[in-house]
Amino acid sequence: MSKIKNDLFLRALKGETVQRPPVWMMRQAGRYLPEFMEIKAKYDFFTRCQTPELASEITIQPIRRFGMDAAILFSDILVVPQAMNIEVEMKPDIGPWLPDPIRSADDLDRVIIPEIESSLGYVMDAIKMTKDKLNHEIPLIGFAGSPWTILCYCVQGRGSKNFDKAKEFCFTQPHAAHALLQQITTTTISYLKAKVAAGVDAVQLFDSWGGLLSPEDYQVFSWKYMQQIIDALKSQVPVIAFGKGCWFALDVMARSGASALGIDWTCSARNARYLTGGQITLQGNFDPTRLFSPPSEIKKQVKLMIDSFGKDRYIVNLGHGILPNIPVENAAAFVEAVKEYKEE
Amino acid sequence: MSKIKNDLFLRALKGETVQRPPVWMMRQAGRYLPEFMEIKAKYDFFTRCQTPELASEITIQPIRRFGMDAAILFSDILVVPQAMNIEVEMKPDIGPWLPDPIRSADDLDRVIIPEIESSLGYVMDAIKMTKDKLNHEIPLIGFAGSPWTILCYCVQGRGSKNFDKAKEFCFTQPHAAHALLQQITTTTISYLKAKVAAGVDAVQLFDSWGGLLSPEDYQVFSWKYMQQIIDALKSQVPVIAFGKGCWFALDVMARSGASALGIDWTCSARNARYLTGGQITLQGNFDPTRLFSPPSEIKKQVKLMIDSFGKDRYIVNLGHGILPNIPVENAAAFVEAVKEYKEE
Lengths: 344, 344
Fold this sequence. Notes:
Two copies of one chain form a homodimer.
Chain A (H helix, E strand, L loop, with lengths): L7 H7 L19 H9 L2 H6 L1 H15 L4 E2 L6 H5 L5 E3 L3 E3 L18 H19 L5 E6 L1 H10 L7 H9 L1 H25 L3 E6 L7 H19 L5 E5 L6 H5 L5 E4 L5 H8 L4 E6 L8 H15 L4 E5 L9 H12 L5
Helix pairs in contact in A: 4-6, 6-9, 7-8, 7-9, 8-9, 9-10, 13-14
């Protein structure tokens, strides 16, 4: 593997001392960008995911405009259940829509553990094309949803405030739930290993709905499977584990072998460092809605945030994905503030 | 004031030693009850709130069936903005719907600080009628939304996953936001004082969306106003402060003069006791979706929960409102488990 020129992100993942922390933004390749909206107007969601030319172009767009220190492949966590023979649509104004959700053990009969190359080969092609376009300038991140978060959509059938049907399924049919979680886990491990083989430099696991579970249920229905994935990947590539709202599990996550943990904005830098034992690299945690603030205020708050986390063992990011209606100049201010960072 | 026969709830609020903790459930007067659905089929939402015969009957329904240790007046947090001349509708399948949300300083021109008796007198009539029906058997709780949570609806105009428009309003127009928050606070204080005069034995503040804010923004946009309300009420009546997802503020909340703090299910008993300093009464924190579990499992988990919080300085409750699709026998198991509780 030839050397990546800007290796700030990879060095932060290793815990090395850096001049300034690296920066990227969750959902940085997204709807707040006019150039993304142009592509979106022409191609539907899964066409964008499944066409390597489009996915790689979308991945590069924010880098071209803002110069983040890492790119993340444009894709969706729901390509995994789709490959597992669970139908997934993306409906305008609604978002993910699964016409035939999993609600019983019988429904699992139609779920398969797919052969990755034939079902998700388009992702690997997009990775190779993106790596070519990035030309060793910055690293490329691959990602997957956590098995629990994938289950949430497979059972609920769509987004939800509390994913009550998904939780009901787990609490009334735990055997079926664990069978599904294990199938998703097994698929995700093969999927991420294929991504590594195709060239990603790090992977991130998104547990977007882990914070809906109690600490006990989180260990049983989410973390157990996250840990399996980390165990399978950590020797090959740095793994970032992000559980939104999962402050209560940060102690266990810090001992998992993950290279870094994502932090959301409800957990202060001080709490995050305390709960994780102070040694592991942390990533986050700017409130995405705080990007509505004027650019000068954003810059002030980013500076404060870096001072709080400390410049080392730290990756600047948002606490969740960037919102579609954030002004482009505000996103620019966020990245610039990091590049201008000087310790005092 | 004549003595209430079952004073378990009031004694727990005072921190007294009790044989078993008291129990009630947030939204206990609600859609999971068939007798509630019968009334709902005949009268629309605000008719139920505004008709003392209906509101008091609905309040009593769960007591009659399950025998909780406290009743909470059937009403809605949005009667406050409604009285402030902000139109609020309740739409089937959508929930709260504000056709003309607050989006600018100019929009505040139409907001009034209402005279309570003429605008919300129906609530006081419902309290008096409910107190008569309760006949000194158990205490009656009155409630209000936190100013931040009310602002969320006033600005967003409806429910939301992230209340992005409400947060954008606060972060881009902080002067207008604080003006609105203060108007809501002033109204809420008068409203709760009138409730106390009408006979409620305790009040609870619901900060349902406090957990969407960062710890710093929470202090500025939510807690500051919660504290004003607690200061104004605490000498008259015990105040319970509940901030969903607000684990990060529990230390400040514990020093506020509130008699008890509500805890959600993401914060373990151990964390909650630690973060609050171990002295204040805590209320919660059963995951509402855990009521989907079979009754035997519910009883086991309630027992464990009481053991974890300890029987004193503790009020058994859910960590958020009971869900509409919970089986009645499961709600019964929850209450029974508390009444059967014996320390080992």
